[in-house]
Predict the structure.
Amino acid sequence: MPMLKIFVGTMYGGALDVAEQVTPLFEEAGYQVAIYDQPTLDDLTGSPTDLALFCVSTTGSGDYPGNIVPFVRELESQSPGLGTLRYGLIALGDSSYVDSYCGAGRSLDELLQGQGASRLGERLEVDAMETFMADDEALPWVEEWIEAQQLKVA
Ligand SMILES: Cc1cc2nc3c(=O)[nH]c(=O)nc-3n(C[C@H](O)[C@H](O)[C@H](O)COP(=O)(O)O)c2cc1C
């Protein structure tokens, strides 16, 4: 069974909640799912990753949540080369932070592509100003993502 890894960056648990809520959708699509809420680079590169999903909120002024900072630092310092990685990205943010809206998700997206990884489809940005529960937007988006990118394996 192919492995889908979900990497979470969260301050208050919203992005982790998204990861947990979308898990059954991937299981139904034929994947084994692992959620990393204290991710390290080894979680990504140390074992096969058929598909990855990043669920990342933003804190401070466009900053990464603390739990994903070690992962990002390792990615920046070790430049592993991610040419075979296919991923999706869900960024949680708040558009009242005009200059740093979804800053962490956008930066991570750039970082991953800089390492040669391929994002499948567009990034989802969930705006807390418009959507109280990020799941409400993330669940239909993931359903559509699986369909549009033909990710179903079962
Ligand atoms: C102290 C603080 C700083 C924030 N800074 C930003 C920011 O710079 N850009 C942004 O888009 N959202 C920002 N947000 C909004 C959060 O990213 C948003 O509420 C998100 O849904 C939180 O997700 P989480 O529960 O996974 O941490 C900030 C929220 C707080 C409380």
Q: What stands out?
A: Helices lie at 14-28, 41-45, 69-78, 103-114, 134-148. The CA atoms of residues 92 and 126 lie 5 Å apart.
